[in-house]
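Model: You mentioned two targets. I'll fold them one after the other.
Researcher: Yes, keep them separate.
Model: Target one:
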Amino acid sequence: MNKKTAFYIGFSLIIISFLLAVMSYYMLFFCIPAFIIGLLFIWFSSANNRNKILLTFLPILLYFPLSIGFLYWYNYQPYTDVYLPKDFSGSVRLVYNENCASAVPIDKKKRSIHIPPNGIFLSKDSLESGSAAYHFYIPDEKGEMQKLKLNGPFGDKDKNEKEVFFLGTTIFDAEEENYKILQNKGFESVDFYVNPKGKAYSPERKYDKQIIQNLLNEVVSCRNTIK
């Protein structure tokens, strides 16, 4: 093997192993040996010492910042601002991928959802299923928007402040007996609950029969507009 060929082989191994390692730390077990083999080819090649040193240390120096940057980009979710009516409390259901509904409005380059009094919002867009993608706001006595605390599924029962609880997503299957009203197409909703001040969250509220019925009726009514 001539030294020019050794350089191309080594350079290819270094670049491929570096990119794979940045995209997934699970690949390090395979990438580190490939990187070392690539370095051996590089140091055997006809490359000058400057390039050999650069190809040895530059990937090592760039690995951590680029890995962190890739993970941030890959997992990035733009925040969606959710605005509640004044004095609102109760169930918030965000239904997505409904062609009969409107797109989520964009306000100052951010998506914004204005929740109606019944707490049900339908969108033709896809919506994120994780709680971290949403910021909730409610107007105070002066009409100024105040950000609400977003808690997990179980809150601190001693707190007396209004807050939002993330309940996960619910799948409504059109084949299920309770949801036959949906006919041929089911749907999913991202579910939250805004508790009244001084009252602790109760998991049973997610499956309140009247809330579910109102939600089903809202979806069916929307779909009927495009028949």
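Model: Target two:
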Amino acid sequence: MFLRNLEDLGSYFKRTEYLKYLDENNLNHKSRWYIKKISRLIQDKKALIVFKHWLLWRWINKNFELTEKFSAQLKHNLKKLKISANAKEEAFLLQLEELVFNSWRPLKELPVKFEIAKKSKLTWFRPMS
């Protein structure tokens, strides 16, 4: 998920050249303007799209946590890289949000009913001294 198949071997070699501009460690710190500037430098648009998906996939593998911060950062990086998610990826994002939301909420407490006889008495025993 989030990783696209490589069309040719040339894009594999090209993405290693693009790592000098952008990698998974500095993805959060680079601006949209910088990524747009890199997009203008790279002439092969198909290789650029494959590189963006590969970069996001590496970022997810490195930083995956079940936290709200990760979920928000993932959506932010999707927008920053101008990547559209397919149906499976959208379902994954929704399930991740639901899991994070439900992980901090306490479980619902169900009322428990005890059947106690009405005329029962509790007796206290005193130790004999």
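Researcher: Noted. Anything on target two?
Model: The chain is about 55% helix and 0% strand.
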